[in-house]
Specification:
Blueprint lengths: L9 E6 L9 H17 L4 E4 L13 H10 L5 E8 L5 H14 L4 E6 L6 H8 L9 H12 L20 E5 L2 H10 L3 E3 L8 H11 L11 E9 L3 H7 L1 H12 L18 H10 L3 E4 L1 H15 L3 E5 L5 H19 L4
């Protein structure tokens, strides 16, 4: 397939359970469920939540608990982790938690795995305790999980109950080429965090595809890219709404994190040239605009990358505007996918 061809592409949601200024995590969870229900109606494939810790504007720290809440409030959409930061947890505990989720919501749970801490080093130490300085082997931890989920593990002295014998898809998450090699060697689907780490995206997915080894889980490479999306009725409105995400990432760059801030008229009053440049680099794969602009840019992105699935995350202050953005995004992707090639 050459880069001028288009293929049908699945579309999904990544939710960080972002807490906005003036609201609480309790408010956030309610709006997340509302968004998940709307995404289900719009034909989104999956709704993922990401493990982060010690971040004032991100309320998805107890990721498996929140997955259960979202899955329990929806009916068909797949719900999962984007991801669980595996070095923070014993594989057995992850197997039990996701085995419980998969038992409650059969054929709807995804387990995306990352190896970053999902936080700062001080907090990672608090999470891992004496294991902080231990050598964590990401591939062997994944293999341990696969063993716990295997029906063949019934004779083992250590079993995941529930979890054993359940078909829970495991995804490898990455923001560099390292996880691409792991996903390729293990024959697992690969999700790249291009929404905040675009530098290695093209290199990583090429490496993954080139080195992919078919497995009992997957017969050919499957790539999902996560991107930022802010869509609105007009380009100007989308640009205005996007100043919330600019402020969000300014907090990441500066280390001065806040609750998600409302849009502003002029970012130049908030950041300097160096900060603007750093944020711009992180947000290279961001699609901001009205439906027509979005369609043009996403079409080019899909032609160039040939990803199998595109996952959108949207840090939008107003809940109704956020829902509208996902409505427009789904409409655009459906239109692109329906084009005959």
């Amino acid at each position: 397939m050459n880069t001028k061809e288009l293929k049908p592409v699945a579309y999904s949601v990544l939710d960080l359970a972002t807490v906005i200024e003036g609201k609480t995590p309790a408010d956030t969870f309610k709006t997340s469920l509302e968004l998940a229900r709307e995404a289900e109606k719009l034909g989104f494939t999956r709704y993922w939540l990401a493990e982060h810790h010690n971040m004032i504007s991100v309320a998805s720290s107890a990721t498996s608990v929140l997955i259960g809440y979202i899955a329990g409030g929806t009916s068909t959409i797949r719900v999962g982790s984007g991801g669980i930061m595996l070095p923070n947890h014993a594989p057995l505990v992850v197997a039990e938690q996701f085995g419980t989720l998969a038992s409650l919501y059969p054929d709807r749970i995804d387990l995306g795995l990352g190896r970053a801490p999902g936080t700062d080093q001080v907090t990672a130490r608090a999470i891992r305790g004496e294991n902080f300085n231990a050598v964590h082997n990401f591939p062997s931890d994944i293999q341990a999980l696969q063993k716990f989920f295997s029906a063949d593990n019934y004779n083992s002295k250590i079993r995941a109950i529930p979890g054993e014998g359940l078909d829970i898809p495991i995804w490898i998450l990455g923001s560099s080429t390292d996880s691409a090699r792991v996903a390729a060697a293990m024959g697992l689907p690969y999700a790249f965090a291009s929404h905040f780490a675009p530098a290695y995206f093209l290199e990583a997915i090429e490496l993954y595809r080139k080195n992919f080894r078919p497995s009992k889980y997957l017969d050919k490479p499957y790539v999902m890219a996560c991107v930022n999306v802010v869509a609105a009725d007009t380009d100007a409105e989308a640009e205005w709404l996007s100043t919330s995400i600019l402020q969000f990432f300014l907090g990441v760059v500066s280390g001065q994190r806040k609750l998600l801030q409302p849009p502003v008229e002029n970012m130049d009053e908030i950041w300097g040239i160096q900060e603007e440049h750093a944020v711009g680099q992180m947000l290279a794969y961001s699609f901001i605009g009205g439906a027509q602009k979005l369609k043009q840019r996403i079409k080019v992105f899909l032609q160039q990358t040939q990803v199998d699935e595109i996952m959108a995350t949207s840090h939008i202050f107003d809940h109704n505007a956020r829902i509208k953005s996902y409505q427009l995004f789904s409409q655009v992707v459906q239109e692109i996918s329906s084009v005959e090639v």
